[in-house]
Design brief:
Distance between the termini: 16 Å
CATH architecture: 3-Layer(aba) Sandwich
Number of helices: 6
Number of strands: 7
Helix content: 40-55%
CATH superfamily: 5'-nuclease
Strand content: 5-15%
Shape: globular
Structural class: alpha/beta
Radius of gyration: 14 Å
CATH topology: Rossmann fold
Order of helices and strands: EHHEHHEHHEEEE
Number of domains: 1
Length: about 140
Amino acid sequence: MTSHPIILVDTGLLVAFYDSADSLHQRVVAFFAGCTSRLLTTESCITEVMWLLASDWRVQNEFLSHLANRIYECEPLSYPDFARIAELNTQYADLPADFSDLSLVVISERLNVAAIATLDKDFDIYRRYRKQPFERVFYPA
């Protein structure tokens, strides 16, 4: 695995990790087991994960426990981030982009983090600083 000091983590990868019935569960577990990077996400991704895992409060609590123990770090959005998300929302209106994805784009720009663990093909389209692609560090089969 390529080493990165920080990797952004999108909703889908987190759901696949916690949902043992997910077809990518074992691959995602192996990915995280071999990962030594700081794992960074956003509150909007956390909200999506909680919603998608809503059928089992025990699994939700396992996820929350991992957050509380800083296995994943949650980067808060700042007020200027919302203005940038609005710009991106306009730019990617034809996708359409969702708020969680755009929050990761903004955090990637603010913290200068190109590496992302995601199942979402839209991150092949999104550009950081309007021209730089993301470096995907996890690919579904």
